[in-house]
Design brief:
Layout: E1 2-7, H1 30-50, E2 54-57, H2 73-83, E3 88-91, E4 94-95, H3 101-114, E5 119-124, H4 129-134, H5 147-170, E6 176-177, E7 182-183, E8 189-190, E9 193-194, E10 210-213, H6 217-226, E11 229-232, H7 237-255, E12 265-273, H8 277-295, H9 320-325, E13 329-332, H10 334-348, E14 352-356, H11 364-378
Parallel strand pairs: 1-2, 1-14, 2-3, 3-5, 4-5, 5-10, 10-11, 11-12, 12-13, 12-14
Antiparallel strand pairs: 6-7, 8-9
Length: 383
């Protein structure tokens, strides 16, 4: 089983929890944000030394609150590549509509080549209007009154951008003429003629993987048809199992090949390990509650199960007890955490596991203790 670590890359908070301040009232300093950035790089080195397979960073912008302060994981990934030996470097996720697709392709190819083929192209459509609309796109978030139209626009832009990116990364020469992107634009003069096609420089020198978060029914249908990997997070196991199996069905329909049970799918789980379940719950509760205070209003908890057996209503702020009862978070002693991972392996055939061991507000010292303990006390039984 390939096991990776995923971090938001936030600042440390000594008042994390369900109470004040409200998430929108938080303001981190530039010094705190930069300290977090340096610690994110340090943590990658620790994870490499401990033998983790991959290390994933988020992309977010203008987050004065301090929850996610890394705007360009590819840029940090280049530094991480120089300081590590073998760990693969992924983005969870580059928000594609916020980039010019050719700049994203160039940057990824540069990271991939610098790292000797250790880059992972992780892509997403976005969740935060503050970022998306400032950077020239739209997003159909839970709190957007123009949700349907914004989502349609975002999805169309994402689809075309990914067409461009895949062409640029895999073809020596390419051109693309769609509704959103027209590349190269017509009529560009070039030494007596006009530009008819483009070549990305550099292009990847090594094979690469593309992964996208599975967050909606259309995405569940699209990702396996494109042949990419799907990332599953924050869903009740009933919903995860249904989507996990549907992914395999669509892949087989599109490509004529049956996937192995865990192939091309990654399960993400928030995790905390301690000597006892009670100690682990006490340790993780402030970060759990801070996380949902922050993300609940964006609709991230829609993967929880409501009392009617259907997805929970958007905006739910779950308690830690709900997260544990629904098996969406894995918390306990080393034996209990191992048992819960094994439970998911039995249910899904998990072969790619991404652990989220550091909650909003946690200290990097505590995060380092978690990745050490998971690597030494839990994961060896899955080698």
């Amino acid at each position: 089983m390939r096991t990776g670590v995923f971090l938001f890359g936030g600042v440390e908070m000594d008042d994390a929890g369900p109470g004040p301040p409200a998430s929108t009232d938080r303001r981190s300093t530039s010094e705190e944000a930069w300290e977090a950035t340096e610690r994110v790089i340090d943590m990658a080195v620790v994870c490499d030394d401990l033998g983790y397979d991959s290390y994933w960073l988020a992309e977010h912008h203008f987050q004065h609150e301090g929850y996610e302060v890394v705007p360009n994981g590819i840029l940090l990934g280049a530094v991480i590549a120089e300081r590590t030996q073998r760990i693969r470097i992924g983005m969870a996720f580059n928000i594609v509509p916020q980039w010019h697709p050719l700049r994203l392709a160039e940057d990824f190819a540069t990271l991939h080549n610098l790292s000797g083929g250790r880059g992972i192209l992780g892509v997403g459509r976005g969740t935060v209007p503050r970022e998306s609309e400032t950077l020239g796109t739209r997003i159909g978030s839970f709190d957007n009154p123009d949700k349907a139209a914004a989502d349609e626009s975002n999805r169309r832009q994402f689809d075309e951008a990914m067409d461009v990116i895949q062409l640029a990364l895999t073809e020596e020469r390419f051109a693309y003429h769609g509704e959103v992107y027209d590349l190269p634009p017509p009529g560009i003069p070039d030494r007596g003629g006009t530009v008819q096609e483009l070549t990305l420089v550099p292009r990847p020198l090594h094979p690469f993987e593309t992964w996208q978060a599975i967050t909606s029914p259309p995405t569940l249908e699209q990702v396996p048809r494109r042949g990419w990997g799907g990332v599953f997070w924050n869903n009740h196991p009933t919903f995860t199992k249904r989507n996990w199996d549907r992914f395999a069905e669509v892949f087989e329909e599109a490509h004529g090949r049956t996937l192995e049970p865990g192939e091309k799918r990654t399960l993400v789980r928030c995790v905390c390990v301690a000597d006892t379940r009670e100690e682990a719950m006490a340790r993780v509760r402030p970060g759990h509650d801070e996380m949902w205070k922050f993300l609940g209003p964006y609709g991230w908890s829609k993967g929880y199960m409501g009392p009617d057996g259907k997805p929970a209503k958007a905006g739910l702020i779950p308690s830690l007890e709900e997260s544990l009862e629904q098996k969406i978070w894995i918390v306990g002693s080393a034996d209990e955490v191992g048992e819960q991972i094994e439970w998911y392996r039995d249910l899904l055939g998990v072969e790619n596991l991404l652990l989220f061991p550091m909650m909003p507000g946690d200290s990097y010292k505590a995060g380092e203790e978690q990745v050490h303990r998971l690597a030494t006390d839990v994961l060896p039984e899955f080698d």
